[in-house]
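Session log. Operator J.P. requested a structure for one protein chain; no other inputs attached. Running the standard single-chain path with token output.
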Amino acid sequence: MMIAQRNLEYVAENGTAISVPIQLFSPEEDDRCWACRYTIGWPNGVKSGVAYGFDSVQALILAINSIGNDLYFSDYHKTSRLTWGEINGGYGFPVTKNARDLLVGYDKEFDD
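Structure written below.
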């Protein structure tokens, strides 16, 4: 079951605005761990991911961090035309420690 969604926007070189929906699904118990699925609807296709944790909270936190990493390591971010609100304002997702140097805008301000 989908539990959260956020829509980013990518502005193509020709100026066309393309919606980039992000969906986060409820963690599900597996036989040995918990899994939390997510999708990112990139302009070139949907990327599906899964984060695994010892419990549902850890799986959820890891999925949210994975979304942030996927956004910041994407070619779309590198163009500076991927937005959530204002240009270079960030995306509202945390990232893992090894990606914090990539943060922009409000994401950078609120990362401690």
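Operator note: The mean pLDDT is 95.
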